[in-house]
Amino acid sequence: MQVIENVLNLLYPRRCPICDEVLKYKECKNLIHEECKKKIKYIGSHVCMKCGKAMRTSEDAEYCDDCLKIRHRFKRGFSVFSYRSISGSIYKFKYLGRREYADFYAKATVKKFGKELDRLRIDAIIPVPMYKEKQYARGYNQAEIYAKKLSELTGIPLRDDVIVRKRQTRPMKELDLRERRNNLKKAFNIVRNDVEFKCILIIDDIYTTGSTIDEIAHEFQMAGVENVYFLTLAIGQTT
Ligand SMILES: [Zn+2]
Ligand SMILES: [Zn+2]
Predict the structure, then answer these.
(1) What's the CATH code of the domain at 76?
(2) DSSP letters for 154-178
(3) Range name among 1-10, 14-23, 226-235 with the lowest pLDDT average
(4) Which ligand is nearest to the CA of 27?
(5) Ligand that comes closest to the CA of residue 51
(6) Ligand nearest to the CA of 208
(7) C-alpha 154 – ligand 1 centre gap (Å)
(8) Helix axes 101-120, 142-154, angle to 10 degrees
(9) Are 22 and 128 in the same domain?
């Protein structure tokens, strides 16, 4: 395996997920430059018990302001990085074909949440699906790539054949909160009738309002799934 990996690194040089420079042979093992690693901000332990957003140290409430306003359908969410410190990296991962970044992302995720994921007894990892034409145009679904790596490291089965995105919704950033919710109505469909999971983990790259994840959670709840958790690479501050 090591030989194959070395050859692959020669053919497709692995890049650092922060500065995007090609990693030297010795650096490849860590998947990132030591110096670049210091620039990343992880989400700490003082978080909203619903969405997983970082809370100010002065706040001692259980939930963030956003989660107090909206009743989410998911049970709880987890995010690895503070959005601002990793947004450039995610952009390249998403739009510039830097799929290899997923190796670092997944490794960092398991380091932070491995035990928690074990404890939750998750039956399946479900990436947020992309509309098929959009995925065809981009060549890949970044959430799926990240989810696949997570599945490899945790041993939790990846299921990317259960839910599909039926139509393309308007870009979320163009919409206000109410429009976002309407925009997502019935955008997702469960395409199997043998869903037997009790507990799932939905995977996406960035958590914003949670409306996409709520919509998917709803579909799974209708299919009998009891516990829906989510995990995203990055999350911002309270809006
Ligand atoms: Zn670097
Ligand atoms: Zn929250």
Answers:
(1) 3.40.50
(2) H-PPB--SSEEE-SPPPPGGGS-HH
(3) 1-10
(4) 1
(5) 2
(6) 2
(7) 26
(8) 60
(9) no
